[in-house]
């Protein structure tokens, strides 16, 4: 099968959890997968047949590490199957405003990096009040008051739809397999 890199940057850990699930689904399909936190290392993409990049949105932007990673490997990424996933609270807001805001973040990232991934997904992130300092907690309460009124300001709330994450990972796996002409050893298996 194929060697796939899942590289990500995370704030409070939700993007890491999604990257791990994407990696597990791809492994269940028979691929060799490395899931790498860009805060810990900056991997070379040359040994891989495909690359998946994941990023969270903080203060309206993707992390610097993800932007640098993609910009520095733009040519290599253009020559292989690639995918991008984004986590944001805007994606948790299913109103037209939320959908448009989340799509705007993706568009701005792709414009800034001049990258054109083959597959793109947007997932709801998480509110981690337990990990925020006083000021960030206040700011986050202000931000989500109107768009996510069901958020519990005294606890943590997860908005990630794990079925969507697995569907995305299976779509990426199928795309890579089709593009590279390989057959999955186990197709569309649900990962727990």
UniProtKB/TrEMBL annotation:
It comes from the Archaea. It holds the Pfam family Flavodoxin_5. Residues 4-167 form the Flavodoxin-like domain. SUPFAM superfamilies: Flavoproteins. The lineage of its organism: Archaea, Methanobacteriati, Methanobacteriota, Stenosarchaea group, Halobacteria. This is Flavodoxin domain-containing protein. InterPro entries: Flavodoxin/NO_synth, Flavodoxin_dom, Flavoprotein-like_sf, Protoporphyrinogen_IX_DH.
């Amino acid at each position: 099968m194929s060697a796939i890199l899942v590289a990500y940057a995370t704030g409070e850990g939700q993007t890491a959890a999604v990257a791990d699930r994407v990696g597990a689904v791809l492994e269940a399909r028979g691929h060799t997968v490395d899931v790498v936190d860009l805060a810990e290392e900056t991997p070379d993409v040359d040994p891989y047949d495909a690359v998946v990049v994941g990023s969270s949105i903080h203060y309206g932007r993707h992390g610097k590490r993800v932007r640098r990673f993609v910009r520095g490997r733009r040519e290599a990424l253009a020559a292989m199957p690639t995918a991008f996933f984004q986590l944001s609270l805007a994606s948790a807001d299913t109103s037209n405003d939320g959908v448009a805001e989340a799509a705007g973040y993706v568009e701005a990232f792709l414009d800034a990096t001049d990258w054109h991934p083959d597959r793109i997904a947007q997932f709801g992130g998480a509110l981690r009040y337990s990990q925020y300092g006083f000021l960030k907690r206040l700011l986050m309460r202000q931000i989500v008051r109107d768009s996510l009124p069901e958020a519990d300001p005294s606890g943590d709330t997860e908005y990630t739809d794990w079925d969507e994450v697995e569907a995305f990972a299976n779509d990426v796996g199928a795309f890579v397999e089709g593009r590279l002409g390989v057959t999955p050893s186990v197709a569309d298996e649900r990962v727990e």
